[in-house]
Q: What sequence folds into this?
């Protein structure tokens, strides 16, 4: 399997860390997967942690999937984006983002989660799940289109495999 797995420990990213899978040619971008007992991503206001899977040209290959799965997940000043620009039909799915806190809390503080398309293909799915989900501090969760392709689907709650006890939106979160 692709990605970083630390099933008995923590995965932590901070500062200006960037994990990207990008294609501008005919090949497909790869997937990004992180898993562990806990995941913590803590950027600063102007020095964010970034994870992206992107197809940047109208004739390029397909973007990959982004997956974060852990017992608990804390994202602060983090951007996680999946972008599709290609107009070439693909049997593969467009960029998707799945974030699942399987046993505990999912906290988003001043964080952007987005799937988008600027081509003829649809944007991917955005699934966010956790037992207690707190979205705060101007966090944004969105699916957008700026072309002929449809915006992707979005779910906040338990659809990705976690039981939900509560969802809280605070402090300018959208």
A:
């Amino acid at each position: 399997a692709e990605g970083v797995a630390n099933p008995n420990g923590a995965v932590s990213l901070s500062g200006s860390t960037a994990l990207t899978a990008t294609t501008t040619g005919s090949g497909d971008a790869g997937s990004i997967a992180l898993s562990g007992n806990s995941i913590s991503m803590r950027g600063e206001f102007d020095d964010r942690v970034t994870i992206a899977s992107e197809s940047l040209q109208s004739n390029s290959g397909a973007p990959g999937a982004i997956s974060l799965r852990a017992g608990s997940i804390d994202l602060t000043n983090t951007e996680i984006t999946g972008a599709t620009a290609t107009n070439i039909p693909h049997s593969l799915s467009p960029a998707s983002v799945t974030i699942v806190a399987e046993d505990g809390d999912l906290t988003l503080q001043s964080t952007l989660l987005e799937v988008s398309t600027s081509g003829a293909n649809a944007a991917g799915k955005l699934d966010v799940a956790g037992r207690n989900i707190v979205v705060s501090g101007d966090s944004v969760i969105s699916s957008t289109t700026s072309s002929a392709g449809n915006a992707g689907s979005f779910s906040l709650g338990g659809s990705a495999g976690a039981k939900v006890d509560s969802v809280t939106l605070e402090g300018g979160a959208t």
In short: Residues 63 and 108 are 24 Å apart (CA to CA). The chain has a mean pLDDT of 81.
